[in-house]
Fold this protein.
Amino acid sequence: MNKLALLCALCSPLTIAGPITQIEIENNIVLFSTSSMAPSTVACVAENKNQLRSVSLDSHSGRAMYSLLITAVAKQQAVAVTSAQDCADLAGVERVQSLRLAPNTNAGNSNARSIGLYASDGITRIGTLVDTAHYKNSAYDSGQYRWTYIDDEGGVDYKTLNISYNNAEIQHEYSGCRGRQGLSTHGVPVYHHGKYIMGDKNAPFTSSADRNAQNYSCFNRQNKTSYEIIETEHPICGAGLCLVKED
């Protein structure tokens, strides 16, 4: 390896690799190449595989990068690739450490679509979707939505938005779950049966009972500070849950 190649390897360079021309999955490893990716100079790479790069689906970051690759294919957009400088995913293939979408000035006009994350109004675009997940409590109507996305603000990592639903324990002013209703915290929206609620910091009161969020049973306890429930909106999603749709 010459001195220039060695210096590049030590720097783990970020390269604009162009639009994706090939993508396949082999034993849970994503292999891809692009229209302008330079042959790899990493020592472990096989000569007949030096145009390929690898991403493992066995990690969260790998699955997020795969979603980003699919978005790049849909938009016919270039990707910027940072090398991990090894072949840890698959022998003979250079492993990718990170990816990001990059402007593709050669793409021209295209009808290709990307997958966007939108506010509940379906109009306000939050960012480009990278990954999504829904964790549901099998015994009760509760769970959590998670969206991973990128936007034009940029940063060193993806942004993640989590919203739990129907898991708020409602506190009541009097035993037997009577009187005013409140939450133990204030200022944080909770998605509860189709609307966002939160505790009002300006309306604290002493509660004497809780209603369980899962089986709705009521149990009395010692007096506790609660904050009266008010309806609100989520600062990003708006009045409902965020939406995923094609642009």
User: Anything to note?
Assistant: The first strand starts at residue 14 and ends at 18. DSSP finds two helices and 16 strands in the chain.
